[in-house]
Hints:
This protein is mostly helical. The protein has nine helices and four strands; from the N terminus they run H-H-H-E-H-H-E-H-H-H-E-E-H. The chain has a two-stranded antiparallel sheet with strand order 1-2.
Amino acid sequence: MMGEQQQQRTSGGGDSALVRLRLCWIFAALWLPVFLWSTVQAGFGGAAFGLQVLCTLLFVVTHASLSNGWRGGGLFFVFAVSVAFVLEASSIATGFPFGFYVHNVAGFKLLGVPPLVAFIYAIFGWLAWNLARLIVRQHPCDAGGVNRFTTPLVASFILAAQDLPFDPIGSTVLGIWTFRSPSGYFGVPLTNFLGWMFTGWVFFQLFALVESRFPPHRAAVTRASYWLLPCFIWAMNAVQYPIKFASASAGSVTVAGRTFVTADVYESSVVVALLTMMFTAVTAAFRVGAIVHGPLNPNPSRFPPQTTLW
């Protein structure tokens, strides 16, 4: 039975895969206005933020099911959520790997970690994973060979890069979390970003070792639109920073005796997002074009070259 299911996915996947691909477009279309609404509010939490997370979660779950089936996609989320939670809790208790800090948001926390935080790792992790697959691999579905080790490494850099523009805002300006020893980048210590890289690498590497056991639905992943959607969402997440900068309040903020001009924090986030997140999204999108017009896979017998645009 398992062999038949894998054969069905690699040989086409049927109409259900295309229906799910259309659902991905619908979830992305719903996400965009909610995301912009949440961005304009310039805060964290509330109805807009909750809807944004829900739309993104629905998108990535559906998107992952097309890449690796429901079981494979589910395993990615198990790895990501579990690793993120354990290392977040570890850092709060011991300082490893992010450094000592506390979450200041209201609501339930388990070992000091709001449960939503672990799911945010999984959401951004899946998007970063797809961008890394596009950039590193000859074809993003080629899960064998050296790709098992190069893709997780690159994905960990991409994942940490999305935190680079947000953390000074979230920690220093908004006070969503507080570091015991603020330093480095607008009050955010280097250990925080190294922690993001390490956390991402762990769950990316775990998944990469079993990825080939969960083949994709060819009917979906041979369409460029499947791969362009993560690029689009990643790029739009970079666009939020010019919007935040345009509406940034005047004045300054002081953290542990260090004073920062609020507008400078937001402007720096614009620069960082442009040169990291936007660059990565554009590079990955260009790779989609190369795949569409080039060989789909170095092993055409396993994955026939029938890539289409939509």
